Amino acid sequence: MNNFTQHLEQNVNWNKVFGVVDSLYSDKGFTSNADNFARATMVEKAIDKFSNLDRVDQNGYDFLFNDKKVELKMGKNLFYKRKDTKATKRFKVKSFLSETKTVEDFKQISTYDYLLVIDLTARRVVVVDDNHARSLYTEGADGAMIALKEGDYYECNLPEINVTLPPTDLSTLYNRADQSYLDF
Question: With CB atoms counted within 10 Å of each terminal CB, which end of the chain scores lower, N or C?
Protein backbone atom coordinates (compact mmCIF):
# COMPACT_ATOMS: atom_id res chain seq x y z
CA MET A 1 0.00 0.00 0.00
CA ASN A 2 3.00 2.31 0.51
CA ASN A 3 3.53 2.94 -3.23
CA PHE A 4 -0.14 3.78 -3.68
CA THR A 5 -0.45 6.12 -0.70
CA GLN A 6 2.87 7.77 -1.53
CA HIS A 7 1.59 8.37 -5.06
CA LEU A 8 -1.62 9.93 -3.72
CA GLU A 9 0.37 12.24 -1.47
CA GLN A 10 3.01 13.31 -3.97
CA ASN A 11 1.80 12.80 -7.53
CA VAL A 12 -1.86 13.84 -7.65
CA ASN A 13 -2.78 17.43 -8.45
CA TRP A 14 -5.33 17.75 -5.63
CA ASN A 15 -5.68 21.49 -6.37
CA LYS A 16 -7.30 20.60 -9.70
CA VAL A 17 -9.20 17.55 -8.41
CA PHE A 18 -10.80 19.56 -5.60
CA GLY A 19 -11.24 22.50 -8.00
CA VAL A 20 -13.40 20.20 -10.14
CA VAL A 21 -15.25 19.07 -6.99
CA ASP A 22 -15.89 22.65 -5.88
CA SER A 23 -17.05 23.65 -9.36
CA LEU A 24 -19.40 20.68 -9.71
CA TYR A 25 -21.02 21.06 -6.30
CA SER A 26 -21.54 24.82 -6.70
CA ASP A 27 -22.81 24.52 -10.29
CA LYS A 28 -26.29 26.10 -10.27
CA GLY A 29 -27.13 24.29 -13.52
CA PHE A 30 -27.22 20.95 -11.70
CA THR A 31 -30.64 20.87 -10.08
CA SER A 32 -31.75 17.25 -9.75
CA ASN A 33 -30.63 13.97 -8.23
CA ALA A 34 -30.03 12.73 -11.77
CA ASP A 35 -27.15 15.22 -11.96
CA ASN A 36 -25.31 13.32 -9.20
CA PHE A 37 -24.22 10.70 -11.73
CA ALA A 38 -22.66 13.41 -13.92
CA ARG A 39 -20.85 14.87 -10.91
CA ALA A 40 -19.49 11.53 -9.72
CA THR A 41 -18.35 10.56 -13.21
CA MET A 42 -16.56 13.87 -13.70
CA VAL A 43 -14.79 13.59 -10.33
CA GLU A 44 -13.57 10.13 -11.40
CA LYS A 45 -12.39 11.59 -14.70
CA ALA A 46 -10.60 14.41 -12.85
CA ILE A 47 -8.79 11.87 -10.68
CA ASP A 48 -7.82 9.99 -13.84
CA LYS A 49 -6.53 13.15 -15.55
CA PHE A 50 -4.65 14.65 -12.61
CA SER A 51 -3.00 11.45 -11.35
CA ASN A 52 -1.56 8.24 -12.72
CA LEU A 53 -4.65 6.28 -11.81
CA ASP A 54 -6.36 4.86 -14.88
CA ARG A 55 -10.16 5.06 -14.75
CA VAL A 56 -11.53 1.72 -15.94
CA ASP A 57 -15.00 1.79 -14.30
CA GLN A 58 -15.31 -1.98 -13.95
CA ASN A 59 -17.70 -3.96 -11.79
CA GLY A 60 -16.14 -3.84 -8.30
CA TYR A 61 -13.42 -1.27 -8.96
CA ASP A 62 -13.01 2.10 -10.62
CA PHE A 63 -9.28 2.57 -11.23
CA LEU A 64 -6.05 0.73 -11.86
CA PHE A 65 -2.80 1.84 -10.30
CA ASN A 66 -0.01 -0.26 -11.74
CA ASP A 67 -1.44 -3.76 -11.25
CA LYS A 68 -3.68 -2.84 -8.29
CA LYS A 69 -7.44 -2.38 -8.46
CA VAL A 70 -8.86 0.66 -6.66
CA GLU A 71 -12.48 1.17 -5.63
CA LEU A 72 -13.48 4.81 -5.07
CA LYS A 73 -16.09 5.92 -2.57
CA MET A 74 -16.67 9.61 -2.12
CA GLY A 75 -19.19 11.89 -0.57
CA LYS A 76 -19.78 15.12 1.21
CA ASN A 77 -19.34 15.14 5.00
CA LEU A 78 -18.26 11.50 5.30
CA PHE A 79 -16.18 12.27 8.38
CA TYR A 80 -17.88 13.55 11.48
CA LYS A 81 -17.37 17.31 11.66
CA ARG A 82 -15.40 17.56 14.91
CA LYS A 83 -11.78 18.42 14.03
CA ASP A 84 -10.37 15.70 16.27
CA THR A 85 -12.58 12.91 14.96
CA LYS A 86 -11.07 10.01 13.11
CA ALA A 87 -14.39 8.27 12.35
CA THR A 88 -16.67 8.34 9.35
CA LYS A 89 -20.40 8.04 9.17
CA ARG A 90 -21.71 4.82 7.64
CA PHE A 91 -21.69 4.84 3.86
CA LYS A 92 -22.57 2.33 1.18
CA VAL A 93 -19.80 0.30 -0.42
CA LYS A 94 -21.81 -2.34 -2.29
CA SER A 95 -25.36 -2.28 -3.60
CA PHE A 96 -27.85 -5.12 -3.33
CA LEU A 97 -29.85 -3.64 -6.21
CA SER A 98 -29.83 -6.08 -9.13
CA GLU A 99 -27.66 -8.42 -7.04
CA THR A 100 -28.56 -11.66 -5.32
CA LYS A 101 -25.60 -11.38 -2.96
CA THR A 102 -25.69 -10.79 0.80
CA VAL A 103 -23.29 -8.87 3.02
CA GLU A 104 -21.63 -12.18 3.88
CA ASP A 105 -21.12 -12.84 0.16
CA PHE A 106 -19.55 -9.41 -0.33
CA LYS A 107 -17.25 -10.05 2.64
CA GLN A 108 -15.91 -13.14 0.84
CA ILE A 109 -15.52 -11.69 -2.67
CA SER A 110 -12.46 -9.55 -3.33
CA THR A 111 -12.98 -7.15 -6.24
CA TYR A 112 -10.34 -4.51 -5.42
CA ASP A 113 -7.00 -4.14 -3.67
CA TYR A 114 -7.56 -0.70 -2.12
CA LEU A 115 -10.65 1.22 -1.09
CA LEU A 116 -10.01 4.92 -1.73
CA VAL A 117 -12.35 7.12 0.31
CA ILE A 118 -12.57 10.86 -0.33
CA ASP A 119 -14.52 13.26 1.87
CA LEU A 120 -15.33 15.99 -0.65
CA THR A 121 -16.16 18.57 2.03
CA ALA A 122 -13.31 18.05 4.49
CA ARG A 123 -10.88 17.24 1.65
CA ARG A 124 -9.67 14.13 3.40
CA VAL A 125 -8.32 11.17 1.45
CA VAL A 126 -8.00 7.79 3.16
CA VAL A 127 -7.08 4.31 1.95
CA VAL A 128 -8.24 0.98 3.34
CA ASP A 129 -6.75 -2.39 2.43
CA ASP A 130 -9.30 -4.67 0.77
CA ASN A 131 -9.19 -7.46 3.36
CA HIS A 132 -9.71 -5.05 6.22
CA ALA A 133 -12.43 -3.10 4.42
CA ARG A 134 -14.42 -6.26 3.70
CA SER A 135 -14.20 -7.31 7.36
CA LEU A 136 -15.98 -4.06 8.28
CA TYR A 137 -18.99 -4.52 5.97
CA THR A 138 -22.38 -4.42 7.70
CA GLU A 139 -25.88 -4.76 6.32
CA GLY A 140 -27.78 -1.66 5.29
CA ALA A 141 -31.21 -1.17 3.77
CA ASP A 142 -30.12 -1.75 0.17
CA GLY A 143 -26.45 -2.69 0.37
CA ALA A 144 -23.30 -3.37 2.31
CA MET A 145 -22.29 -0.44 4.49
CA ILE A 146 -19.03 0.53 6.17
CA ALA A 147 -17.99 2.93 8.92
CA LEU A 148 -14.31 3.68 9.45
CA LYS A 149 -12.62 4.39 12.76
CA GLU A 150 -9.06 5.38 13.61
CA GLY A 151 -6.83 2.42 12.82
CA ASP A 152 -9.04 1.20 9.98
CA TYR A 153 -7.39 3.36 7.34
CA TYR A 154 -4.31 5.27 6.29
CA GLU A 155 -4.99 9.00 5.93
CA CYS A 156 -2.99 10.65 3.17
CA ASN A 157 -0.98 13.67 4.17
CA LEU A 158 -2.09 16.01 1.41
CA PRO A 159 -0.34 19.28 0.68
CA GLU A 160 -2.22 22.50 1.37
CA ILE A 161 -5.08 22.69 -1.12
CA ASN A 162 -5.38 25.83 -3.26
CA VAL A 163 -8.10 24.91 -5.71
CA THR A 164 -7.81 25.59 -9.41
CA LEU A 165 -11.31 25.89 -10.85
CA PRO A 166 -12.24 24.90 -14.40
CA PRO A 167 -13.03 27.98 -16.50
CA THR A 168 -16.63 26.94 -17.31
CA ASP A 169 -19.38 25.18 -15.37
CA LEU A 170 -19.96 21.63 -16.59
CA SER A 171 -23.72 22.20 -16.83
CA THR A 172 -23.07 25.03 -19.33
CA LEU A 173 -20.98 22.70 -21.47
CA TYR A 174 -23.61 19.96 -21.22
CA ASN A 175 -26.32 22.41 -22.32
CA ARG A 176 -24.23 23.47 -25.32
CA ALA A 177 -23.60 19.83 -26.24
CA ASP A 178 -27.32 19.04 -25.90
CA GLN A 179 -28.27 21.90 -28.22
CA SER A 180 -25.57 21.00 -30.73
CA TYR A 181 -26.66 17.36 -30.69
CA LEU A 182 -30.31 18.28 -31.24
CA ASP A 183 -29.57 20.75 -34.08
CA PHE A 184 -29.99 18.39 -37.00
Answer: C
Number of domains forming the structure of the chain: 1
Tell me which residue range forms the domain holding 148: 2-182
CB 19 within 8 A of CB 164: yes
Q: Which of 56, 21, 39, 46 is nearest to 174 (CA)?
A: 39
Close Cβ partners of 14 (under 8 Å, ≥ 6 residues apart): 50, 123, 125, 158, 159, 161
> What is the tens place of the pLDDT at every residue in 124-153?
999 999 999 999 999 987 889 999 999 999
Q: Are 103 and 116 in contact (CB under 8 A)?
A: no
- Residue 27 sits in a domain whose CATH number is 3.40.210
Cα torsion for 72, 162, 46, 64, to the nearest 10°?
A: -50
